[in-house]
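Recall from the previous chapter that SMILES is a line notation for molecules. Here it describes adenosine-5'-triphosphate.
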Amino acid sequence: MFGQNFQRKYALTDQGVRNTKKGTFWTFLVNLIVMGGMGILYLLMYKLMDTLTEGRPLPSAPPLLGLVVLFVLLSFLTHLQQYKATYGLVYNEVKATRLSLAERLRKLPLGYFGKRDLADLTETLMGDVNRMEHVWSHVLGYLYGSYLSTALIAVCLLVYDWQLAIACLWGVPVAFGLLFGTRRLSARSSERTKKAAVRVSDGIQEALENVREIRATNQEVRYLAGLNQKIDDHEKVTIQGELGTGIFVNAASVIMRLGVATTILVGADRILSGQIDFMLLFLFLLVITRVYAPFDQSLALIAELFVSQVSADRMTEIYNTPVAEGTAHFQPQGHDIVFRQVGFAYDKKKVLDGVSFTAKEGEVTALVGPSGSGKSTCARLAARLWDATEGTIQVGGVDISTVDPEALLRDYSMVFQDVVLFDDTVMENIRLGRRGATDEEVRTAAEAANCGEFIRRLPQGYDTPIGENGAKLSGGERQRISIARALLKDAPIVLLDEATASLDVENETKVQGALSRLLAGKTVLVIAHRMRTVAGADRIVVLDNGRVAEQGTPAELMARGGLYRRMVELQSQSAQWQLNQA
Ligand SMILES: Nc1ncnc2c1ncn2[C@@H]1O[C@H](COP(=O)(O)OP(=O)(O)OP(=O)(O)O)[C@@H](O)[C@H]1O
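With both inputs in hand, we obtain:
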């Protein structure tokens, strides 16, 4: 019952499965003990009836009182344990699940993040886990515990009097059948609601991220109208979904309660024909109230279970996506990067084909080519941010597809155009380059990256918080911080993606000074659009439409008169372009 399928179905951790078992056991016990309470009531009634009809003396109070006290005590203790095993333990499950999902996401190949965007994944980590928390704490244990206790009670009733038992229990399978029959409908409407919710989060995130562009193009009214529409759609499908589920749950509950009427009818008929006495009918009526009580609650719970299946599936999908794996033991002979007949496709679109080149240790290898020719893709593959679909990439003679990405990336520093900074102090943002670096080492790296001067001007120097994604810094300052990080890491391979593209002349000179310190003696793979930047490279690989068009030293390529030369000439023409020429 609680095997692997169960675990996957409800996206539970191993501990979560153990907790659910405990919750089920205690719910089972609680239901039986409460049923025992009904037994005491029945006994009391039986004795009273004897007194009234047969004139027997009233039963002695102490044993009955003892029984009641025992019942209260047992009931209290089992409820307490049930509470602990469901609500208490499950709150840890939420934390454990979020951590294990985050851990899994950390290891997934970048390609996965193209399939599910940020808002979608945030919705899983926050919304879906929250929804499942309610299922784990309020549903699973109760439901499975109630299944077991009802099955046991049903068997006892059937043995005792099968006709009355059928009269009182027939509604249970019919009600459940109705809910299970409409399960697909609930799941589909829940999926619609979920998609609409993700569209709303996407819209809000996009609006916040692009607030500058929206204002600059006077699109506020149009954009907000679009967002409003998404919110209205979400509201509509949510109401439709809840209405649909509500109708089925209430119908199932009414059907189940019809069992009381049939029990009375069958019971009355059998009393009249002298087959049973009134006390037996009374016993069955007492028992069915207890059988229905947990199931009444369960019907709503089952509906919730169906609706929440979409959330569980979205979490399980993360667990089931294969992670980029490999050996943690990475000991290359040197750090030459060798591409051999590398091919790559994003989904089905092939963007690299038969790419071969070597970026040697101690040299700067520049990747150039028209926009969309595959330069950034090559850099991503070189760091195993994605895996090549054809050919091999080696670093120091080791095929990188066999190396654990985390172990591999210890040997890489990356400086990209879009620098990512965290909402923390300058000091901690640079220290990300090498955890455990001393304050002094951070300062030395910052000075070498020409950061010292602007950091000293900040109100609290190195201890100044820089806002979300470094909002309080200029483009050049952000880029120099990322170079300081790379200097601190001092990895043997440096990947540079158009690092100086968006800077003014003064900043560019400062960044370039910092870069030359960073690059000395390393294997450097640089993606550059400006031919001026790459004229000093040792080797240039020219990509065109996903293939290597030509490669060699800048002088060789100039002499060859191919694509590289054309690009150099085109850029020197455009360098003379001025605003008034438009
Ligand atoms: N995540 C992605 N999913 C799908 N296609 C992508 C993705 N990233 C890039 N591409 C496509 O792959 C091709 C190569 O892109 P790539 O970014 O490597 O080129 P590039 O030479 O670096 O371009 P640019 O100089 O404009 O940055 C392009 O056609 C691009 O549209």
